[in-house]
C-alpha cells in the first residue's frame, strides 16, 4: 500500500439475493464495475456495505470474495465495525486472514466510553490488529465525534494510518489536515464536497455514491490532481444531482434504508447487480421509487438497463 | 417458564481473568451467590454482563456455563445484543442451542432505523428466534426509546413476551403496565425505584446492583409481594445508598467502566469472584477507589472479605 | 410561604384570545377553578403556561393578574424562563414587582454551558433575585440534566429552595430526596407517577394535567398524606387515562402543541376558558381532535360543557 | 441592500464593562475596526454578540449604537434570537425601529416544534416583521437542523432572503446553493472553510473570528472574487491557525465561554476594546490564557498592544 492512501476508495455495497444471502456473483461484478471505473482502492464492510446487517460468516465471505477477486490490484480496506475492542479485534483476525491491506474502525458504541478509553481502544487495535488502522469518524452512528486533538495524538504516535471522516465537520477535518504528520491519510466520506475536501488537502474520498458512478468520482479526483478545479467542481455538482436518489425513499423509512436502498436500486438498474435487495429490517424501495431513481440516473447521463436511456 | 415472568432477575456480571478471558469458575460462584440470594431468574449477556465487550465464543461460553450450572432451577434469559436483525438472529441460534429460556433484544443501533423498521425487527425475531422475546428498552445505548404504543402493539400481537425497561421513563412504563395484555411482563431496569415500579404494577426487576446484593433485592420484592411497602421502601433506600459505588470512578472514566467496575470490585471484595477485571478499553478502578467501595459496602452491612467488617 | 413547599402546584395555562392576546378574564376563571380544586400553590410562566411564547408584556400581565387575584391565598411561583443569567434576572425583577413568592429557573440554554457555569448561574440568581429560587430540571427543553450532586451542592449552601424535577429520572430524584438538607423541596413534574414520587418522599407535584383536573391531583395528594396509598394509586391511574388527551394531536404537530393544545381544549370543553387557542407557531387541534378529547374527559368522569356528560 | 447579500459580514462582539454593561465606546471602536477592515456588512445580536446574554434594553442599545454609527455605510443585520415567533416578532419591532436592514432568526428552541411549525414560524416572521428575514441554521444551539428542502421551500415563496448556515453541514449547504432561486443569499458561518464555501457558490461569510481579524477575511473573499484561489486558501489556512485561540479555554469552561472569551481577549490585546469581559455565567479566561492568545495572535502577524510584537 502506498502511504498516504489516496484517491477514490468506494465503500463497496454488499449485493444480496432475495433470500438475504450474499450474492457473490453480483459482488464480483460490482468490484469489476468499480475497478473498471478506475478506483484506487476498495473499502469493504463499511456502513454502505451494510456491515451492521451482516453475520460473521457473511462478513468473511464478502471480504474473501473481494480480496480474492482483486488479487492485489488495488488496496482492500476492511471495516471491523463492532461495539468494543475485543469484538473489533476478532473481526481484525478475520480480515488479516482474508488478505485485507488495512482496517477501518470506529470508536466504541453502545457503551458509554470516555475519550481516554476511545484513545486506548485505537491504541490496542494498533498494537494487536496486525494491519494499519484507519479511524472511521461517524458520529451519526457512533454518537461520539473523534476530536482533531485525539486523531492527531494517535497519528503522531503511529497508532493510526489515517481517518475516514464521515462527520461532515470539514472545519475539524481541516485542522487535522494542517497539523497531521507526513503519511497520515485524510479521506472524506462526504460525497457532496469532495472537490472542497481535496482543495483543503484531503488525500481521497470514500463515497457511498461511488458505487453507482465510480467514473464520476474518478474524473473528479483526476481533475483536481491536474489542477483543473473548475472541471472537478462541475463533476461534483453533477454528482450532487445524482445524490438526490438517496432522498427518494423519504420519510417512510430510515435514512439507512433510503440511502443503501437507492445505491442498490441504481446498481440494479445499471445492470451491475442481480437484485436490489437490502437486509432486514430495512424497508425496501417500491416500483415507483425505482422509477424515480431511474430518471435521476438518466438525468446525469447514466445508462439504465433495458431502457435505452 | 411462568408467564408473566416475575421477581428479581439480575443481569449477571461476566467475571474475567487478568488476561480478559471468561473466568468460568468465578461465574459459577457468582451464579451460586445469586441463587443462594433467592433470585427468580438470571439474565446473561446484557449490558451489565459486558456483552458489548465479549466475542462470540465468549458469549457462548458464558451462556453455556450459566445454563448448564443452573440446570433449570430458574429461567435463564439470554441477551442477543447486536446491531440489526440478522446479527441478532445469529446470537439467538446460539442461545437456543445453549438452552436459554428466553431472549432479550434491543432495537437496532448504529444504523438509522425507522419506527416501522424497529417494529419489523421485533416481529422477525419473534417469528424466527424460536424463544420468547423480551424487548430491552435502553435509549442510553441504543439512542431510540421504544414507545408505549409500539410495545403495546407488539404485545397485542404476541411478538413480545415482555419488556425490560431501562429507559428510566416510569411514566411511559406505567402506560404500558395499565394497557398491556395479560401475561406481558414488565420488568424495570431502574435499580433505585423498584418499590415504586412494583407499586405501579411492574412484575419484577433486572438490577445490575443485584449482582452485589441479591438478598437485598429479593427482600425488597418479597416485602412488596406481601404488601409490606414500608419494608420494601426501607430496603430500597438502603440499596440507593449502596448504589453510590457506581459513582466512585467519577469523571475520569466512562459511565460503563465506573458502573461495571464497581459491581465487579464489590463482588471481588465480597469474595464472590476472583478478579475485579473489566474488559478493555474500560479504565480500571484503582486501589483507592476499591477502598472507597469497600467502605460503602460495609456501610450497608455487607461483609467484605478479609476485613472482618 | 411554608418551607418546604408541598402539595399540588399546577403550572397555570395561559388562556389566549383568538388574536393571541392574554385572555385575562379566562385566566382569572382558571385560577378560580384551580383554587376551588384545592391546589396548594400556583406556578405561572412555566412551560405549560406557554412562557416560551409570551412577550415580556404578556408575561408581566399574566403574573400580575394571577398574583393580584390570588391575593396571598396560596403561594405564587413565577417562572423566569430565559437563556442566561442576565435575562433571567430581568424576569426576576418583574416577578418581584408583581408580588411573586418564589422563582423557578432552568439551567442556561441555547448557549453551551459548563456545569460550573450552571452552578454559577444559580448562585447568581440566588444572590440577586430577591426571592427563593427553585431549579427547573427540564432536559427535554434545556438539553442538560441537573445532576443530583449539583442540586445537593446548591441546596446545602442555600442557593436553591427546591427543585421542580421534570426530567423523568426518578432514580436521580430519589438520590436528591434522600440526601437533601431539611427544608429543600422536591416537586415532581411527572404527571403519571405522582403517587410513586410522594412514596419516595417528594413534597409535591407540578402537573400540567392539573389544569384540567385539579381535584384529581388534590385527591391523590390527600390520599397519600393520610397514608391511603391504594386510593392514591387509583386516582393516579385514572389520571394516567386522562393524560391520553396529550396524544390526540399525534405526529402531525410538535409535542408542545399536542400537550398544551390538549390542556386548553379540555379547559375549553369544561367551560373554564373562553377559547382553546395556543400561541403561534403551534398547530391547533381540529374539531375531530376536540371531540376525541371530550370523550376522554367523559371517560374519567369530567363533565363537558353543553353535552350533559 | 444589495441582493443577494455578499462578502464578509462579521457577527459583531458586544464589548462589556467590568460591571457587565454594554461598553458603547468600545463597540463603536469595534465597528470602526471592522469597517476599516473592509467588511461588507455587520451582523449584530447574533450568538457571537452574546445576544443570549443581553437584556432587552442592552440589545436595543447595541443595535442603536451600531446602526447609528454605521449610518448606512454597510447593511446592518439584526439577530432576533428568541424561543418562539411572538418573542421574535417583539425583537423585530425593536430592530425595525433602530434602523436594521434585515433580520436573522433561528428556528424555535426550548419548545418541541414540528417541521411544519418551523416553516410557519418563518412564514409569520416574513409576513409581519417588516424586514427581509435570514434563517440562522445553528443546530448546536437550537437542536434542530433546517433541512435543504425547508430552506428551498421558504426561499421559493419569498419568505426568506437567505440563510446563515452555521450547521457545519456543507453538503446540505451545497444542495441549497445549487437549487436556490436567484437572489437567495447563502452565507456560511463556518470560519475554517470559507474558501471552500465560496468555491461551492456561497455568497459570503459570517465569521466570529472576523471580529479579531477582519482584514484577513476580507483578503480571503477578495482573493476568491478575483479567482486567486491559492491566495484565498493561504489566507484561510492562516485563519485556521488563528482560530486556535478558541481552544485555549479548554475543558474548564463551556464552548461559548472559550470562544467568545477568546475573541474578546484578542480584541482587547489588539487594543480595540477596553475590557475582555464576557457576560455571566461564563467563566473568564485567566492571565495565562490571555498570554497564550497573545502568542497565537503574534504567530499570524497580528500586532498586540503594548508588546511591540
TrEMBL record, chains A, B, C, D:
Lyase in keyword set: yes
Coiled coil: none
UniProt keyword annotations, A-Z: Lyase, Schiff base
Keyword flag Transmembrane helix: no
InterPro entries recorded: Aldolase_TIM, DapA-like, Schiff_base-form_aldolases_AS
CDD domains named among the record's database cross-references: DHDPS-like (cd00408)
Record PANTHER family: 4-HYDROXY-2-OXOGLUTARATE ALDOLASE, MITOCHONDRIAL (PTHR12128:SF66), DIHYDRODIPICOLINATE SYNTHASE (PTHR12128)
Assigned protein family: Belongs to the DapA family.
Name of the protein in question: Dihydrodipicolinate synthase family protein
Organism the protein comes from: Nonomuraea typhae
Lineage: Bacteria, Bacillati, Actinomycetota, Actinomycetes, Streptosporangiales
Amino acid at each position: 500500500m502506498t502511504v498516504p492512501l489516496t484517491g477514490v476508495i468506494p465503500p463497496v455495497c454488499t449485493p444480496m439475493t432475495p433470500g438475504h444471502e450474499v450474492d457473490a456473483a453480483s459482488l464480483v461484478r460490482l468490484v469489476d464495475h468499480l475497478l473498471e471505473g478506475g478506483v484506487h482502492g476498495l473499502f469493504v464492510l463499511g456502513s454502505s456495505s451494510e456491515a451492521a446487517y451482516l453475520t460473521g460468516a457473511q462478513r468473511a465471505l464478502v471480504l474473501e470474495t473481494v480480496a480474492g477477486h482483486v488479487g492485489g490490484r488495488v488496496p482492500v480496506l476492511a471495516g471491523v465495525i463492532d461495539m468494543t475492542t475485543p469484538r473489533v479485534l476478532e473481526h481484525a483476525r478475520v480480515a488479516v486472514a482474508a488478505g485485507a491491506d488495512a482496517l477501518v474502525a470506529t470508536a466504541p458504541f453502545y457503551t458509554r466510553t470516555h475519550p481516554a478509553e476511545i484513545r486506548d481502544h485505537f491504541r490496542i487495535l494498533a498494537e494487536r490488529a496486525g494491519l494499519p488502522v484507519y479511524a472511521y469518524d461517524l458520529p451519526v452512528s457512533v454518537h461520539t465525534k473523534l476530536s482533531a486533538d485525539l486523531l492527531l495524538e494517535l497519528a503522531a504516535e503511529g497508532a493510526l494510518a489515517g481517518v475516514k471522516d464521515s462527520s461532515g465537520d470539514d472545519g475539524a477535518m481541516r485542522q487535522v489536515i494542517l497539523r497531521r504528520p507526513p503519511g497520515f491519510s485524510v479521506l472524506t466520506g462526504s460525497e457532496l464536497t469532495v472537490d472542497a475536501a481535496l482543495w483543503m488537502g484531503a488525500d481521497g474520498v470514500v463515497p457511498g455514491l461511488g458505487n453507482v458512478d465510480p467514473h464520476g468520482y474518478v474524473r473528479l479526483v483526476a481533475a483536481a490532481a491536474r489542477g483543473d478545479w473548475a472541471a472537478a467542481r462541475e463533476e461534483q455538482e453533477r454528482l450532487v444531482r445524482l445524490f438526490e436518489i438517496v432522498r427518494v425513499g423519504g420519510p417512510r423509512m430510515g435514512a439507512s434504508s433510503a440511502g443503501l436502498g437507492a445505491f442498490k436500486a441504481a446498481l440494479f438498474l445499471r445492470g451491475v447487480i442481480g437484485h436490489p435487495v437490502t437486509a432486514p429490517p430495512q424497508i425496501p424501495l417500491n416500483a415507483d421509487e425505482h422509477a424515480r431513481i431511474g430518471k435521476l440516473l438518466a438525468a446525469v447521463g447514466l445508462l439504465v438497463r433495458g431502457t435505452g436511456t
